Amino acid sequence: MATFLNTLLQNIIYGPATDPFPFGETFSPKRVRGLIRIDRDLCLGCGMCRHVCAAGAINIQRNSQGWTITIWQDSCCLCRSCVTYCPMQAMSIDPDWHSAHVEEDKYKRIEQHTISYQPCARCGTPMRVMSLDRARELYAADPDIDPEEIRHLCRSCRQIRDAEQSTVCMLRSDISTAPAAEKA
Questions:
Q1: Which site from 1, 39, 145, 156 is most exposed, i.e. has the minimal number of CB atoms within 10 Å?
Q2: Domains, the chain, with CATH or none
Q3: Beta bridge partners of 69
Q4: Complete DSSP assignment for 72-140
Q5: How many CB atoms lie within 10 A of CB 27?
Q6: Residue 124 and residue 116: Cα distance in Å, rounded?
Q7: Average pLDDT over residues 16-29
Q8: CA 107 – CA 104 distance, rounded (Å)
Q9: Do residues 84 and 38 lie in contact, with contact meaning Cβ atoms separated by under 8 Å?
Q10: What phi and psi, each to the nearest 5 degrees, are found at residue 69?
Q11: Among residues 84, 96, 94, 77, which one has the least CA distance to residue 49?
């Protein structure tokens, strides 16, 4: 009886130690599991998420116009492999606590995005445009390259552009290091 009175007194003085939900926001741990979300602006369609998905909840269908990414939320086991291995950090888990649904709706719980190809600015090949943030990150060390321009080039044209830029840089360094007698 003394233990009960002691606990009651502590609750009166310090308040209860439970979550305020539904009267306030509940605590959500950092690694809480909810719904898988994809940021279509960051996704490059590499397929790594589909490859590492143990439950087979992610499907990518490609066609001539682009690709469609489908995530079956009810098939997902929320292992976070897609979030961990996505090279662009396009996958995330939304801590959605309101995901209860009736059995008939289980096939409607999908997230689907269609990402269209755009033509390469140099050769016209259909491609996915790189995000501006990713282009800035990749080409931060080279001030001569415009990230806005480079992100609209396909992989092959980016390689050609990088090779041309390297050649120009090498020629500049050869000219600047040549002795004065050779320049004359």
A1: 1
A2: 30-116 (3.30.70.3270), 117-177 (no CATH)
A3: 60, 113
A4: ETTT-----HHHHH-TT--EEEE--S-----GGGTTT-EEEEEEE-EE-TTT--EEPPPPHHHHHHHTT
A5: 8
A6: 14
A7: 68
A8: 7
A9: no
A10: -105, 125
A11: 84
- pLDDT above 80 (res 174): no
Say how far residue 79 (Cα) sits from the centre of its chain.
16
Among the listed residues 46, 35, 32, the one whose alpha carbon sits nearest the alpha carbon of residue 111: 35
Residues 66, 40: contact at Cβ < 8 Å? no
Cα distance between residue 166 and residue 172, in whole Å: 10
Determine the residue type at 41: D
What does the pLDDT look like over 55-94, one tens digit per residue? 999 999 988 888 899 999 888 888 889 999 998 899 998 8
pLDDT band at 176 (very low <50, low <70, confident <90, very high): low
Compute the C-alpha angle 160/163/164, nearest 5°.
85
Percentage of residues in the chain with pLDDT exceeding 70? 82
